[in-house]
Design brief:
Length: 347
């Protein structure tokens, strides 16, 4: 292929005000033409030298040279990609996606799953992401990379075999100015959860919460994992540990529940319930302003029921918590209609 250095220089002068992509391509070809004029025999290393200088591949440089020798400046001008015209999301679907994002702050993948499984709408995740990006719902965030101590992924298949309990402090949520503490229980296998709010965070609130939990829990709790808060253990209070049994430990021993404490200063071991806290922030706490603790509990119960019945989870292959629980019970034994209705109506 022949490259005319004079013609390349003229094309460069005539296209100086064009896009940077065209200019960079002409400059690369000019350097290639100069090397060719100086060397009696053109070799592959010359392509490698120019390609590394302009940070492109040798194949790309060869393609540019071939296109320019055949078609001139038109050959290296970027063309529009062929294909179908872009179809925009409009109407009811656009409004529904917008409401999902506004109400729950969901990403494209979660919205895609709920549209597919709940409404029978099969639309690509990329198209939903582009819709959210066009409407400025998605902003690029630079996240700091943290050193992780725990890389192992724990897989639990039996409901109740591994559960986690934690407390979320919300000091400024209630309109009456009082503090609120949300007790949050999550099952690892099915992501089934139960939440209640109290104005205090102590041992007897924990005991009352566990009693309410056992009344509605649709499976047997075999293991409960907590942190080292005083509402869960007296481990770091030796003056109480030696003489008094913690009410939660007493409750677990009566109900044959194995109680475990996470290692000190390793809260990522309780990542399941911490993740649940963060989802509740996005999907509930940022959208409500309850008057008092009773009003807050009404909203929490309704939200928890929606979480178990309608909120789909990627680790469950986009099933809800109740669907995952029913699937497990169907695999182990025959589920009666009464049991199925109890699972669906559980808080």
């Amino acid at each position: 292929m022949h490259l005319n250095l004079v013609k390349l220089t003229q094309d460069y002068k005539s296209s100086r005000h064009e896009s940077e992509r065209i200019i960079s391509r002409i400059l690369a070809l000019i350097e290639l033409a100069r090397l060719r004029s100086d060397a009696p025999v053109f070799k592959d290393w010359m392509y490698r030298k120019i390609a590394s200088q302009f940070k492109i591949s040798e194949r790309t440089l060869y393609r540019w040279a071939s296109a320019y020798s055949r078609l001139g400046l038109y050959g290296i001008t970027p063309k529009l990609a062929s294909g179908r015209k872009r179809k925009y999301i409009t109407g009811w679907l656009a409004k529904h996606i917008k409401n999902m994002r506004d109400d729950y702050n969901w990403g494209a993948e979660v919205i895609w799953a709920h549209l597919k499984h709940d409404h029978g709408i099969n639309i690509s995740k990329y198209k939903i992401h582009r819709f959210l990006s066009d409407r400025k719902y998605i902003h690029r965030k630079v996240r700091k990379i943290k050193d992780k101590k725990h890389f192992r992924t724990v897989v639990v298949e039996v409901p109740g075999q591994h559960t986690q309990l934690d407390v979320k402090h919300l000091p400024h949520l209630l309109k009456n100015g009082k503090k609120s503490y949300v007790y949050n229980f999550v099952d690892h296998a099915t992501k089934w959860s139960f939440k209640l709010a109290y104005e205090g965070c102590g041992v007897w609130e924990t005991y009352r919460f566990m009693e309410a939990l056992l009344d509605v829990c649709p499976f047997e709790i075999k293991r409960l994992q907590t942190d080292h808060g005083i509402e869960f253990t007296y481990k770091f209070m030796p003056h109480l540990q030696d003489s008094t049994v913690h009410p939660l430990e007493h409750f677990c021993s009566i109900n044959k529940i194995i109680k475990k404490l996470i290692p000190v200063s390793e809260k990522e071991v309780n990542s399941l319930v911490k993740r649940s806290h963060r989802q509740d922030d996005n999907e509930l706490y940022e959208t409500i302003r309850p008057v008092n603790i009773n009003h807050f509990n009404q909203l929490l119960i309704r939200h928890t029921k929606w979480l178990n019945q309608s909120r789909r989870r990627k680790p469950l292959k986009w099933k809800t918590a109740n669907e995952a629980l029913l699937d497990f019970k169907k695999q182990t034994s025959v589920v009666s209609i009464k049991e199925e209705s109890e699972i669906n109506t559980a808080a």
